[in-house]
């Protein structure tokens, strides 16, 4: 059904008159999200639809639903900067659809090679979004970083997956024998994990992410932060279940403290940033590093916290990039020292930003607080020393999250910032589509485990 929905939206995209493309695609995307979510969550089976190496379970269902939710939201955010380029609307929307299609393949893969195929299918459309619709000349450099990091980690991953397939005779994730998989050479297991850690990314493998976020259009930043990074987390979860013993004995003792201290250092880097999108990008690195640390504990609390953080971060980071774009469209700059005093002319946006900032720092009762509590418990239970970087990271995350709100909304208003400050209905709807799930998951957390 998912594939038919994507094909249907694509056909509508190319057959509709150009002045009706936005309405047709948005309406079909919203209806498709409801249909896909209802279909995925209505089944209690561990795997649904094993044809073509595809299926779904509790983890993949949530991430597929998140991907379909993001499609109409990203298109709503893109109306403003695509309106002068009407002839490119179809191509832009088709790229977003293809990324969602690739994400569905990745999250529903039951075969390692199918997982790799979906993993790599996102490369070209994401690169086109960055280089074609980026706002500055540095977009080519950002695209080069993105391609280099992706290919340099993916090519060894492909070779290692072929070795696994040849040694096992199959690539089905649910049929792997742990005793055999853990007898594979250590370099094979290492390169399998490193590719997904680059995609997450954790501290030390993150240099491509701030550049990609800063240069990408708003839809590219939202898709990248909300779901593309989650491919790394999803693949990491799958591999830990396959190489459980080797990971527990050899990799986890090194990876957990590295991610904890890396998350702390990234939080400190956030305090030095003056570019709004760059700051949000480094915030994502900090959250994802802690998420990997929690997953590496191999505990139930760690896995639960990982899933909660992936969903919460997907919604919140997308909302932060969306609000940052609203500021940028009016002021023409992302520099925090210039974008000041906006609460004097905005009515609703400072309130929306305060909600997202509190959710980002893990303020109760937002979902991020629950996920971080689970991860903190799992990581500290693994080793008590990990409490130091975890606690400091939470402290500095709170500081820079509230600093963004304070810097944007207080102070003296610059003269050129007073024009076109009224929010349109489309922009309010886009913000509410982020605020709604953030609050909805507080009252209905069971949606994450249906």
TrEMBL record:
One of its GO terms (molecular function) is NADH dehydrogenase (ubiquinone) activity. The chain crosses the membrane at residues 59-79, 91-109, 146-167, 187-209, 221-245, 251-272, 301-324, 345-367, 387-408, 428-448. It is a multi-pass membrane protein. Residues 2-106 form the NADH:ubiquinone oxidoreductase chain 4 N-terminal domain. Residues 109-396 form the NADH:quinone oxidoreductase/Mrp antiporter transmembrane domain. GO terms for cellular component: mitochondrial membrane. Its EC number is 7.1.1.2. GO terms for biological process: ATP synthesis coupled electron transport; electron transport coupled proton transport. It catalyses: a ubiquinone + NADH + 5 H(+)(in) = a ubiquinol + NAD(+) + 4 H(+)(out). PANTHER family: NADH-UBIQUINONE OXIDOREDUCTASE CHAIN 4. Belongs to the complex I subunit 4 family. This is NADH-ubiquinone oxidoreductase chain 4. The gene is ND4.
């Amino acid at each position: 059904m998912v594939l038919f929905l994507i094909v249907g939206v694509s056909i509508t995209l190319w057959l509709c008159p150009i002045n009706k493309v936005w309405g047709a695609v948005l309406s079909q995307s919203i209806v498709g999200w409801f249909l896909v979510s209802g279909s995925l969550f209505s089944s209690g089976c561990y795997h649904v639809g094993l044809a073509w190496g595809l299926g779904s379970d509790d983890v993949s269902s949530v991430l597929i639903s998140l991907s379909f939710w993001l499609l109409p939201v990203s298109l709503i955010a893109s109306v403003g900067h695509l309106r002068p380029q009407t002839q490119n609307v179809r191509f832009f929307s088709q790229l977003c659809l293809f990324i969602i299609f690739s994400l569905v393949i990745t999250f529903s893969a039951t075969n390692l090679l199918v997982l790799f195929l979906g993993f790599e299918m996102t490369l070209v459309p994401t690169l086109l979004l960055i280089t074609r619709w980026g706002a500055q000349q540095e977009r080519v450099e950002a695209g080069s970083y993105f391609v280099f990091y992706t290919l340099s980690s993916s090519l060894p991953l492909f070779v290692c997956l072929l070795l696994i397939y040849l040694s096992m005779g199959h690539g089905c994730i649910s049929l792997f024998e742990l005793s055999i998989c853990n007898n594979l050479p250590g370099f094979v297991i290492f390169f399998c994990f490193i590719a997904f850690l680059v995609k997450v990314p954790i501290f030390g493998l993150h240099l491509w992410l701030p550049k990609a976020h800063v240069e990408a259009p708003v839809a590219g930043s939202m898709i990248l932060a909300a779901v593309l990074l989650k491919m790394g987390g999803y693949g990491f979860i799958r591999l830990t279940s396959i190489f459980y013993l080797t990971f527990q004995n050899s990799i986890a003792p090194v990876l957990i403290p590295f991610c904890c201290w890396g998350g702390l250092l990234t939080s400190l880097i956030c305090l030095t940033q003056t570019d709004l999108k760059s700051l949000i990008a480094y915030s994502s690195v900090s959250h994802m590093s802690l998420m990997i640390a929690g997953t590496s504990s191999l505990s139930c609390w760690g896995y639960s916290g990982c899933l909660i953080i992936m969903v919460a971060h997907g919604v919140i980071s997308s909302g932060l990039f969306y609000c940052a774009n609203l500021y940028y469209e009016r002021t023409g700059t992302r520099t925090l020292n210039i974008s000041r005093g906006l609460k004097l002319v905005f009515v609703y946006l400072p309130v929306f930003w305060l909600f997202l900032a509190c959710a980002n720092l893990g303020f109760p009762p937002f979902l991020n607080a629950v996920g971080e509590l689970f991860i903190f418990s799992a990581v500290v239970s693994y080793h008590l020393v990990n409490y130091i970087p975890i606690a400091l990271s939470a402290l500095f995350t709170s500081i820079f999250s509230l600093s963004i709100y304070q810097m944007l909304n207080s102070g003296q208003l610059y003269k050129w910032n007073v024009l076109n400050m009224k929010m349109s209905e489309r922009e309010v709807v886009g913000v509410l589509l982020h605020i709604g799930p953030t609050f909805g998951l507080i009252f209905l957390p069971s949606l994450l485990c249906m």
